């Protein structure tokens, strides 16, 4: 059981005000055989809230009208972004990063890109929903959207062979993809349900739909199926939690049999 210790007094985590997604991830982690270490109540609460925001924004982007395109044919709303020669979107000097990210969700039909960029757009929007806008604009000044070329302040990390939860970034690999369609070598997704993933341009679908879609773009006569890899990518929850609106003082945490003082 996950217990938070404050001033030597043990008390359970109060999840009454949390969203259903946040509570679900918390309960799954609490009951996992894996030990998850948190430096504070704020750290724990922020991760769950950001995961919920990422799930919500993944669903929102799936309904935004965002189109699929290779980098060669990428498009963006040039009121907010400059389209680079390699197909990336760089925020204009006269536009705030927060405004540019919001426009993708509000005017998705003016944008076209591939799955990795779409995935990072969702994470940026989740972070924007979770910290003050002024901090977002400062942390992600000169924002550039292109593949996995993300801002260092997002603190993305990837681990292999670990459990995945709602809000995690995952990858379906297509090992025998056709060289004629290299854009279908795999699909970057966000886990938003027990067997539901947001992947651009598939939308919100189960794993079998993504695998079947990728398998249509294999080499002729290939029988090696696409599959979901064990790699799990996450933003830097601990680093970003310092910008949470409710950031407060240091506390003590006990998770399982382990104690941490910060």
Mean pLDDT: 91
Strand order of the largest sheet: 12-11-10-9-13
* Alpha-beta classification: alpha+beta
H/E element order: EEHHEEEHEHHEEEEEEHEEHEE
Approximate helicity band: 25-40%
N- and C-termini, Cα separation: 20 Å
Gyration radius, rounded: 19 Å
| Largest sheet descriptor | 5 strands, antiparallel
Number of separate helices:
7
Spans with pLDDT under 50 lasting ≥5 residues?
1-11, 249-254, 257-262
Strand content: 15-25%
Envelope shape:
globular
Question: What's the β-strand tally?
Answer: 16
Short description:
The chain is built from seven helices and 16 strands. With 262 residues, it is an alpha+beta fold.
Topology:
Blueprint: E1 2-6, E2 9-12, H1 20-30, H2 41-62, E3 67-68, E4 81-83, E5 89-91, H3 97-106, E6 112-113, H4 115-130, H5 133-139, E7 144-145, E8 157-159, E9 169-173, E10 186-193, E11 196-199, E12 203-205, H6 207-215, E13 227-228, E14 232-234, H7 237-241, E15 252-255, E16 258-261
Parallel strand pairs: 3-6
Antiparallel strand pairs: 1-2, 1-15, 4-5, 5-7, 8-14, 9-10, 9-13, 10-11, 11-12, 15-16
Helix pairs in contact: 1-2, 2-4, 3-4
């Amino acid at each position: 059981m996950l217990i938070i210790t404050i001033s030597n007094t043990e008390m359970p985590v109060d999840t009454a005000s949390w969203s259903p997604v946040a509570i679900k991830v918390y309960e799954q982690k609490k009951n996992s055989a894996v030990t998850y270490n948190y430096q504070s109540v704020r750290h724990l609460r922020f991760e769950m809230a950001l995961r919920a925001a990422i799930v919500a924004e993944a669903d929102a982007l799936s309904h935004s009208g965002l189109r699929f395109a290779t980098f060669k044919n990428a498009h963006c709303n040039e009121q907010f972004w400059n389209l680079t020669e390699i197909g990336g979107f760089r925020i204009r000097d006269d536009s705030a990063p927060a405004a540019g990210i919001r426009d993708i969700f509000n005017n998705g039909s003016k944008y076209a890109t591939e799955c990795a960029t779409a995935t990072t757009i969702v994470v940026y929007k989740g972070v924007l929903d979770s910290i003050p806008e002024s901090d977002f604009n400062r942390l992600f000044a000169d924002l550039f959207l292109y593949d996995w070329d993300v801002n260092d302040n997002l603190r993305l990390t990837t681990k292999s062979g670990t459990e995945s939860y709602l809000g995690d970034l995952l990858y379906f690999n297509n090992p025998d993809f056709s060289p004629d369609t290299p854009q279908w070598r795999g699909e970057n997704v966000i886990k938003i349900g027990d067997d539901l993933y947001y992947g651009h341009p598939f939308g919100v679908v189960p794993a079998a739909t993504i695998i079947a879609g990728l398998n249509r773009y294999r080499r002729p006569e290939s029988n090696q199926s696409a599959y979901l890899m064990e790699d799990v990518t996450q933003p830097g929850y601990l680093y970003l939690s310092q910008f949470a609106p409710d950031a407060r003082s240091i506390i003590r945490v006990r998770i399982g049999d382990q104690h941490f003082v910060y």
